[in-house]
Structure prediction request, 146 residues.
Amino acid sequence: MRLRPGRPVRRLGLTRSGDTSVRLGDTADVTLTITNTSGRPLRARIRDAWPPSSWQPGTEVTASRRRLTIPAGERRHVITRLRPTRRGDRHADRVTIRSYGPLGLFARQGAHRVPGRSASCRRSPAASTCRRNWPACANWTAAPAC
Prediction:
């Protein structure tokens, strides 16, 4: 019996689609489509790398990493829910895929830059109204309750 490493990850097809803008405090869904063009099933762990300010604190690990199996010649959609904690544009870095062999003993890993959309976060209207109504006083140490 010959042990084989996982399926080569360079030949996978990856595309990104989904929401392109979100208000601060709201969520945006970004879909990563993975196409297995090989003749063998893909057993993999996938990490969709976004900046840390794209997640709620404490949820980065579970939100960005997935395990999945894709049969030969098929595709799967992985939905990543972003909830930005800061304003500004968020650009996804790389998608890292670790492909495991049939017994899970050996693996291959590769990182892909996936062209696609970035998520842009704008300030919510409630926050802009609140800030505009702050008194012009240098003694403020905390924001007033809105």
Summary: The longest strand covers residues 28-35. The helical segments are 60-64, 125-132. The two ends are 68 Å apart (CA to CA). The mean pLDDT is 76.
